[in-house]
Amino acid sequence: MPAVAPVPDSAVFPQRFSIEATRPTAAEITALADIVPAATPIYFSAVPTITRQEIVTAAASLRKAGLEPVIHIAARRLASAAALQELLSSLRGEADVRQLLVIGGDLDAPGALPDALAVIQKGRLRDAGIEEIGIGAYPEGHPRITAGRLESALDEKVAAATAQGLRVHIVSQFSFSPERILSWLRRVRAGGISKPIKIGMAGPTNVPALLRYAKRCGVAASLRGLVSGVAGGLVGHVGPDRIIEALSVAGGLDEVAPHYFSFGGTLETARYACEAAAGRHGASRAMARSN
Fold first, then answer.
1. b/e string for 255-287 if b means 16 or more Cβ within 10 A?
2. How far is residue 215 from each of residues 114, 127, 208, 225, 234, measured CA to CA in Å?
3. What is the rounded distance in angstroms from the CA atom of residue 56 to the CA atom of residue 68?
């Protein structure tokens, strides 16, 4: 009997999704819990104007709703190391937060913790009950950081977190190009990093909104390719169908999963993610045609 080839890990790529939400209301969190599977990771964005109490209240609401809160910690926006400890203590005590996404934060004048590496090395995350962290990565590069420095920084942060006894996963900035994502993924794996990777992608939204976010986040080049290629005439919604299709059949990538940025709305993104997880990858194209 011929040997049966193992199913590639990427075949279940759409099913292990997470969602990034910006200031979801209590009503949105309740509705979100009715859409996505229990314990789905919901990343709570570190917008500049948010207060510590808002963060803690949202994390507690997510936990109460049966979801897994993953809180962004933007190093450069922390007033002090003591402020970080106070936030972590509240998150653990009131919301049982066990996971963070540790990022640098785009701020020219950093405080006591200048970057994500400093938070990992000096933040006493394990003492605060944190078990796992996400580390940011950039398939299309970073407007302020060279490609070589991005690679070395990723290695340094993974090593530092592992040395602290933390589980680690990588969360990429969103992109619109399957080719760029696959090329970057293969470079990361070839470089010896085997940690789980969450691939950032924009949830379904309209082209003008995507253009605004893409310009702000430095990924306009791949969006221009999307618009000129398959979505230039759309007035409705577009989404990451092509990326999901490409990564669902790619092999040799180890553990990868979608991470949806909910630019078009948290609940709409959640519905799309569930459709994609069920194998219906053309959801955003159907929405576009119906508009």
1. ebbbbbbbbbbbbbbbbbbbbbbeeebebbbeb
2. 25, 39, 11, 14, 19
3. 13
pLDDT the model gives residue 286: 46
- For residues 173 and 144, the answer to whether their CB atoms sit within 8 Å is no
What confidence category does residue 24 fall into, taking pLDDT thresholds of 50, 70 and 90?
Answer: very high
C-beta separation of 238 from 204 below 8 A: yes
Q: What is the pTM of this model?
A: 0.88
Domains and CATH numbers, the chain: 9-290 (3.20.20.220)
Place of tokens 């190093």: 75
Partners of 44 in the beta sheet? 21, 71
Q: Which of 229, 248, 237, 180 is nearest to 203 (CA)?
A: 237
From CA 235, how far away is CA 189, in angstroms rounded? 38
Q: What secondary structure, in 3-state letters, does the chain show?
A: CCCCCCCCHHHHHHHCCEEEECCCCHHHHHHHHHHCCCCCEEEECCCCCCCHHHHHHHHHHHHHCCCEEEEEEEHHHCCCHHHHHHHHHHHHHHHCCCEEEEECCCCCCCCCCCCHHHHHHHCCCCCCCCCEEEEEECCCCECCECHHHHHHHHHHHHHHHHHCCCEEEEEECCCCCHHHHHHHHHHHHHCCCCCCEEEEEECCEEHHHHHHHHHHHCCHHHHHHHHHHHHCCCCCEECCHHHHHHHHHCCCCCCEEEEEECCCCHHHHHHHHHHHHCCCCCHHHHHHHHC
Using a 10 angstrom Cβ sphere, with 0-12 exposed, 13-18 middle and 19 or more buried, the burial of residue 25 is exposed
Say which range, 123-137, 154-168, 215-229, has the weakest mean pLDDT: 215-229
Gap between the Cα atoms of 246 and 242, Å rounded: 6
